[in-house]
Design goal:
heterodimer, A: Glutaredoxin, Ubiquitin-like (UB roll), 23 helices
Chain lengths: 596, 122
């Protein structure tokens, strides 16, 4: 009889730091101690605390281990699983604690404020076992819809819940379904957008990896509601674990008759397939995505007609994002009122954010809409590391904007972010500290959109390229005040004239940094300085003679021999030769080298 | 699968296997499993509890876990049952005694006084 479950994260983050090998070793050690009939190893999806991976939880105690190495396995098995003594040195500690207070996951600062709806099964079940999903009320929502609800009633529940699209735009999901349902056609489609393209966002991947059945169930529910019998999941080929687990899940669902003909004897047929994307950012745009599924080059087309009327293969189509779908079964089971009781007036429910950048707890968090940025960053995220000051947070990736430190108490929801010139996007949240140059950051995102522009429309193809060139001019110290005005003008032009969302939102990082950090742009063009010390062309490296002990270490480490001097005499940098690589700063024990 | 009843059957069967991860049972049965406990026969006691609780359908009510040395090695195997703030310590446990503890204490809330440390030290 099994008395203990050891859950080990099998998400992409922990897998890349060796969690699969740790799982294998665990099973070996458990067998060696003769505990194989008492202790079960379960490989789950993402727990969320990716920064501390590989992570592991031992139930029933709920002991939360992090940064587990393969060499720790023997000790865990011997001490904890055999003798019942948790290995304290591996138990998770919150940043401000010297002693272990939180022994279980739910008690940590990282989890305390989270409410997991879309991620509820991630890190809890084995995603490759349909039975475990069923144990967690899986497919009950589909059963309820097919046997108790009419399609109209299903749409009503989704509409009443106030659920809005989690992929970026925030379009009300119920309205999308109700616009598609009445359109008569021999074939309609349900499409799941898993082409997660924003740099830094990985919640869709985690849902597919950790709870793939929730997507299958939700798509079948959607199919029933709108009268579609065929579904496609468009997922990028760069997500091999997600693709594999989703395929396993589809096969299992078919075997159980949860996909296929006459589901639950209701007469409703639904089946689905995976389509792999090659990773083009533009394919996350709904019309480009459908074009790509059809086998054509992924380019957007003008709307209207909207997909609700003419979508995939010219048929009425509903396209929702992974996280949106992941909420559906819970809404059906727990009711629209339950979902609508969370969040703010116009943004209901919870949202998953991928925390990244200069933050202690890199990972995935799911919180009610309306949580303040301060709670997300300081309490859940554990704050900015190394005692640095928080400067801004970028939301919505290359389509979004930044929230400066002065607005850290803003309640995060769709409308507040749009009012600030940001957008929710898919929920990537990149934290930046005082060492980040905002002009350089805008340039980074522009480089991304220039690369990813599909080239179909001129404002986006040429406009973003020109924008990038202007930013390069500014960061290289050749910009003028006039350039800043021109930059702004071009941004607004691209926004107004591009064909699809990619181009319409591409200038957002520039516009929002101009709005909140215009002084940094001015510093680059007037003072020819980069206040954060990032833009190389505007920096000179300098050795402070009073601090330099003449140890010669910097001289020996300079790759271009730009440093001269003799032992115990302060050294000097030849700024003509210096390539500003920073090797000297890294090697100086006396902090004598400064950028200025 | 052609009916909701079949789905419910799978759910029923599987729930007892995964609810160990829910961590929301009100009672905790903790078996001392340090060297002294193991040598005194704590392992069969632990297994008896695991099986007994599952078979009695009490998995939602009580979890069974292990701990290290409790400090009263002469009374091992020692089992502590936590229910909120209340703690009951059973001593000199055997697999045979486990059934009664599950039936009386875990299921019906009646402490088996004769197995407790109070009775042993009298």
């Amino acid at each position: 009889m099994i008395r203990t479950h050891v859950l080990i994260c099998g998400g992409t983050g922990c897998t890349s730091s060796g969690s699969m090998k740790i799982g294998d070793k665990l099973e070996l050690e458990i067998a060696a101690k003769g505990l194989q009939d008492e202790v079960k190893v379960v490989r789950t999806g993402c727990f969320g605390l990716c920064a501390l991976g590989p992570v592991m939880i031992v139930y029933p105690e709920g002991t939360f281990y992090c940064n587990v190495k393969i060499d720790d396995v023997e000790e865990i098995v011997e001490e904890h699983l055999l003798k019942g003594r948790p290995v304290d040195r591996l138990v998770h500690k919150d940043v401000d604690e010297d002693v272990i207070k939180a022994k279980s996951l739910e008690e940590t600062n990282f989890y305390k404020k989270q409410i997991r709806v879309a991620l509820r099964n991630c890190g809890v079940i084995d995603p490759e076992q349909i039975d475990e999903y069923i144990a967690m009320d899986g497919y009950q929502a589909l059963g309820k819809c097919l046997t108790e609800y009419t399609p109209e009633q299903v749409i009503q529940v989704v509409t009443d819940s106030g659920l809005r699209g989690r992929g970026g735009g925030g379009f009300p999901t119920g309205r999308k379904w109700s616009l598609t349902a009445p359109n008569k056609a021999p074939q309609k489609y349900v499409v799941c957008n898993a082409d997660e393209g924003d740099p830094g966002a990985f919640m869709d991947r985690s849902v597919l990896e950790g709870d793939p059945h929730s997507i299958i169930e939700a798509m079948a529910i959607c199919g029933y509601a709108i009268g579609a019998t065929k579904g496609y999941v468009y997922v990028r080929a760069e997500y091999p674990i997600a693709v594999r687990r989703l395929q396993i899940a589809i096969d299992q669902a078919r075997e159980y008759g949860l996909l296929g003909k006459d589901i639950f004897g209701s007469g409703f047929d639904f089946d689905m397939e995976i389509r792999l994307g090659a990773g083009a950012f533009v394919c996350g745009e709904e019309t480009a995505l459908m074009t790509s599924i059809e086998g054509n080059r992924g380019e957007p087309r003008p709307r209207p007609p909207y997909p609700a009327v003419k979508g995939l293969y010219g048929s009425p189509t509903v396209e929702n994002n992974v996280e949106t779908f992941a909420n559906i079964p819970q809404i059906i089971l727990k009711g629209a009122e339950w979902f609508a009781s969370m969040g703010t007036e116009k943004s209901k429910g919870t949202k998953v954010f991928a925390l990244g950048g200069k933050i202690t707890n890199t990972g995935l968090v799911e919180i009610p809409m309306g949580t303040t940025l301060r709670e997300i960053i300081d309490e859940i995220g554990g704050g900015v590391p190394n005692g640095k000051k928080f400067k801004a947070a970028q939301t919505g990736g290359p389509s979004g904007g930044c929230i400066p430190a002065s607005l850290i108490d803003t309640e995060v929801d769709y409308d507040n972010l749009v009012a600030m010139g940001c957008m929710m996007g898919s929920g990537g949240l990149i934290v930046m500290d005082e060492d980040t140059c905002m002009v350089d950051m805008a340039k980074f995102f522009l480089e991304f959109t220039v690369d990813e522009s599909c080239g179909k429309c001129t404002p986006c193809r040429v406009g973003t390229k020109r924008l990038l060139e202007m930013l390069e001019k500014i960061t290289s110290g050749n910009g003028t005040l006039e350039d800043i005005d021109k930059l702004e003008e071009l941004c607004n032009y691209i926004k107004a004239n591009s064909l699809c969302g990619l181009g319409q939102t591409a200038p957002n990082p520039v516009l929002s940094t101009l709005k909140f950090f215009r002084d940094e742009y001015v510093a680059h063009v007037v003072d020819k300085k980069c206040p954060a010390g990032v833009c190389k062309d505007l920096l000179t490296f300098y050795i402070e003679p009073e601090k330099c002990k003449g140890c010669t270490k910097c001289m020996r480490n300079c790759p271009v021999n730009a440093i001269s001097g003799s032992v115990k005499v302060p050294h000097v940098i030849d700024t003509d030769k210096c390539i500003k690589c920073g090797a000297c700063i890294d090697n100086c024990a006396f902090k004598a080298i400064i950028k200025r | 699968m052609k009916s909701l009843a079949e789905l419910a059957a799978i759910r029923e069967r599987m729930q007892s296997k995964v609810n160990i991860r829910e961590n929301n049972a009100s009672m905790r049965i903790v078996v001392g499993m340090a060297t002294c406990g193991i040598s005194a026969g704590a392992r069969p006691v632990l297994n008896a509890f695991v099986e007994g609780v599952a078979n009695a359908g009490l998995s939602n009510k009580a979890t069974v876990s292990q701990t290290g040395c409790i400090g009263i090695c002469q009374y091992e195997p020692v089992v502590e049952v936590y229910n909120g703030d209340e703690k009951v310590t059973y001593v000199n446990m055997t697999p045979e005694k486990v059934a009664k503890v599950i039936e009386d204490h875990i299921k019906n809330g009646k402490v088996v006084a004769e197995y407790t440390i109070g009775a042993a030290t009298k």
